[in-house]
Please model this.
Amino acid sequence: MVLFRSSYNKNTQDDTQDKALTDKEKQILRICKEKRSKQEIATLMGYRTIKSIKPEVDSLLNKGKLKMSIPDKPKSKNQKYIATRDENIH
Model:
């Protein structure tokens, strides 16, 4: 028996969720008004490791709300992240 699941509902739900930022994402954007490394972001948010913020950072990058300081080398140890200019997070 093979079960196929529709991805239609999941995609429309994801699109709706993409429009609203989580509190954690908003906090990251506030922190990233200046260039920050993932470790700096995690530390400023009270986490010990970057694993706690990685999904949110990746989501903000995909949404275009955060950008990399070295976009052609995404895995660089010197990579930093900064909020895009159009973000006005209070």
